[in-house]
Design goal:
Distance between the termini: 45 Å
Number of helices: 24
Shape: globular
Structural class: alpha/beta
Number of strands: 17
Strand content: 5-15%
Length: 576
């Protein structure tokens, strides 16, 4: 079987499918033979727990409303011992080596199909009771421990197939085991896609139904460049894919030599290339790829698998210190938590989870002042170990920056009173929303530097949700409005002597780098894997040529026209 989606992280990954649906509440995969006995034991334990819970519920109902209303739970209790449910799931575990959750779902599907075949409406309605029992069993299986621990014994490389993969879930995985990501939702600028590129794992998004059609345990080959996902491909196709993967790795090794070269244009203009990272350990890889510093450390990844209350000052301080020390004198820019209420664990409301607006970024930090102060204390303490900059996300106006800087000043005094003086730390802001971009002249008086987050900036200017694959084609980085905003920010920053960088996905696109340089931008931050190619491009540029390219692009009326200007420019370069 062949599925086609959008390639969002290049490369080829081959491994056995782990299917994840409903967050991590439903994981489906094949287990090694040595785990069969333990898996059946998990299932039996869940049955015992479910029986106890049903008895407790039945008693409560009988006490409150009378025994005649508790009969429904007698039926559910009998279902736990029905050979077509738990016993059938045990058979599936033994014969097909599926994990307990998958086996229960298969048993439920079989029973439901039998009920659907009957003419009796009463029996068809009993499907709900069976589903309720299976849901309770799965709940008790999940209570058995961290669901991510369950497939750590699965042998070989793994391909994660999911409705959606959150960055916090990915951050908890062993990257060495993951061959590729496949998701029903998402697009090129989805946070999961950005993270996949950062950790160099092939990924395909926007498949819509992959989590329903990919069997757990199937051999899956993922081409993150073309968007192809092959399920149980024949041996000759696998061999061809592995050969292509080997060729790509050889090409990447050839590029590595550029990583160690200065990032200077042919006419002597220095272009700074930094790295975007999510984990302190990535700083070493960023240095090896040629990064001058860390242009964006996404501190919210510290919240993966925990809450702010579980992440105290000392724990954060040690992470920031390790990040700074790993860069060995290179400048490190840490963005304070850029999360929503739901991602912070403050609400379970689905609408809040989906909305890209609302209480997030700096707004949320200012409303959770103690969490904000804890993070700032940790950051300011870590600044004594090397050059550090602090950056606030999702800034919309001067008043927010002033409020945040006032808290920084207070925290600095707190540390001094504790006998922990801190060095001066530059404070910057992200330009991600139109209000911040349009008032850059005012922002310049409040910030020490700015960084343009093109991913969010594009979606808010164009009113396109970048997480919605249905409208992802409307997400147009080359839209004339985007180019004009970038030029506006670059011009005002230069007039005010304010350092400005680009840390969104536009910075990592080698085709767009000449255009961005022509718009007046001289600092870029990208995934470590993108740095060698970016340096190769920079070393072949002349700023005079990029200025003419930008001038032509700014006269274009549509994104398609801008693309033609870039294509013509590339054709000219190839012919000279």
């Amino acid at each position: 079987m062949r599925l086609m989606g959008q390639g969002v992280s290049p490369g080829i990954g081959i491994g056995r499918a782990i299917v994840i649906t409903r967050g991590t509440r439903n994981l489906r995969f094949r287990i090694p033979e040595r785990r069969v006995v333990d898996e059946i034991a998990r299932l039996d334990t869940a049955r015992v727990q479910s029986r106890t819970q049903i008895d407790q519920i039945r008693k409560r109902i009988a006490d409150a409303a009378g025994a005649e209303h508790a009969y429904l739970f007698d039926a559910q209790r009998l279902m736990l011992d029905d050979p077509m449910i738990v016993d059938r799931a045990a058979v599936i575990i033994r014969e097909e080596r599926l994990n307990a959750e998958s086996a229960l779902q298969r048993a439920l599907d079989e029973v439901s199909a039998l009920f659907d075949q009957g003419d009796d409406p009463y029996l068809r309605e009993r499907k709900g009771d069976v589903a309720d029992i299976v849901g309770r069993l799965c709940m008790n299986l999940r209570a058995d421990g961290d669901p991510l621990d369950l497939f750590r014994d699965v042998e070989g490389q793994l391909v994660l197939v999911a409705e959606e993969l959150s960055p916090s879930l990915i951050a908890q995985l062993d990257f060495q085991r993951i061959a590729a990501f496949v998701t029903d939702a998402g697009s090129w600028t989805y946070h999961t896609a950005i993270l996949a590129r950062s950790i160099h794992i092939p990924a395909v998004a926007g498949l819509r139904h992959a989590s329903f059609v990919v069997p757990p345990g199937a051999m899956v080959a993922v081409d993150g460049s073309t968007g192809a996902v092959l399920i149980d491909p024949p041996a000759d196709v696998l061999a061809d894919l592995e050969a292509r993967s080997k060729k790509r790795r050889a090409y990447e090794r050839e590029l590595d030599e550029y990583g160690m070269l200065p990032s200077v244009t042919l006419d002597g203009t220095t272009i700074r290339i930094d790295a975007n990272v999510e984990l302190p350990e990535e700083a070493l890889r960023a240095r090896n790829r040629g990064a001058e510093g860390i242009g964006l450390y996404r501190s919210e990844f510290l919240l993966a698998g925990t809450s702010p209350s579980g992440l105290d000052e000392e724990a954060q301080y040690l992470v920031y210190r390790r990040l700074i020390e790993n860069m060995a004198g290179g400048r490190v820019t840490v963005r304070t938590f850029d999360v929503t209420e739901a991602q912070m664990g403050l609400t379970r409301d689905a609408e809040t989870t989906r909305s890209p607006l609302g209480l997030r970024g700096l707004r949320l930090s200012l409303s959770l002042e103690e969490v904000f102060r804890t993070q700032l204390r940790a950051l300011l303490r870590a600044a004594s170990h090397g050059p550090l900059r602090i950056m606030f996300p999702f800034v919309t106006g001067v008043d927010e920056v002033r409020a945040a800087r006032a808290i920084v000043a207070q925290v600095t005094e707190e540390l001094r009173s504790r006998g922990e003086p801190t060095p001066p730390v530059p404070i910057g802001i992200m330009i991600e929303v139109p209000s911040a971009a349009l008032t850059i002249d005012l922002m310049a008086g409040e910030a020490d530097f700015v960084s343009i987050g093109t991913n969010d900036l594009i979606q808010y200017i164009l009113a396109v949700d970048r997480t919605d694959d249905r409208v992802s084609r409307m997400y147009a980085p080359l839209h004339p409005a985007i180019l004009r905003v970038l030029r506006h920010v670059a011009r005002w920053a230069k007039r005010r002597g304010l350092p400005v960088s680009v840390c969104g996905e536009m910075a990592a696109d080698p085709v767009l780098l000449p255009l961005l340089a022509g718009l007046g931008l001289r600092e870029f931050s990208m995934t470590p894997a993108s740095i060698p190619l970016a340096k190769q491009v920079v070393r072949g540029l002349r700023i005079s040529d990029t200025s003419r390219l930008a001038a032509r692009a700014l006269t274009a009326a549509t994104a398609a026209e801008v693309e033609r200007v870039l294509a013509d420019s590339l054709s000219t370069l190839k012919s000279t």
